[in-house]
């Protein structure tokens, strides 16, 4: 179950921690599959959001690029709804948010720099939000609807395997309970596609 990402570029200890995170992300996608069609067809968010942040401060458009989240705010009020737009040429991207435990003092930067700590933290953790988007296509809300409903610090990552075929990945995620068996390299967060958001009451 740890063979879904290419092992050639990373030490095995790092790889196993990354694999844990990838598995978590993929599992979330599979579980939320049955709601994806309705959300993907929901048009109302497009007219309501501007290129960055709407005037009410309650909706935020995050643009996924290769490999970063543009427009991801450092701090938002609780109730803020995020939408994901994929502005990359080809890669599938996702926005997966994990609420960090209240007693977790390490920053996202510190966690991302220590794969074993990251793996330990996220093992058994459920993401509160999973949004996916193919390039130029409406987002798929696989977990939640993009709304941060609870105050706290959130780690945001994209764990899509680099180079994975978007259609193949989504099809595999929709038809399996486990991780999709698709070709791909290291998860996008290994290239820096991650961030931290503080949600305040
Ligand atoms: Cu990505």
Explain the overall architecture.
- It is a single chain.
- With 201 residues, the chain is of the alpha+beta class.
- It has a single domain, classed as Sandwich (Immunoglobulin-like).
- It has 6 helices and 9 strands, in the order H-H-H-E-E-E-E-E-H-H-E-E-E-H-E.
- The strands form 2 sheets. It has a 6-stranded mixed sheet.
- Strand 1 and strand 2 form a beta hairpin.
- The termini are far apart.
- The N terminus is likely disordered.
- The site of copper (II) ion has 8 residues, from loops.
Q: Secondary structure elements and their pairing?
A:
Layout: H1 12-31, H2 36-40, H3 44-48, E1 59-65, E2 68-70, E3 75-77, E4 81-86, E5 93-99, H4 108-112, H5 115-122, E6 129-133, E7 140-143, E8 152-157, H6 166-175, E9 194-200
Parallel strand pairs: 1-4, 3-9
Antiparallel strand pairs: 1-2, 5-6, 5-8, 6-7, 8-9
Helix pairs in contact: 1-5
Descriptors for this entry?
three-stranded mixed beta sheet; 9 strands; 201 residues; single chain; globular; Immunoglobulin-like; binds copper (II) ion; alpha+beta; 6 helices
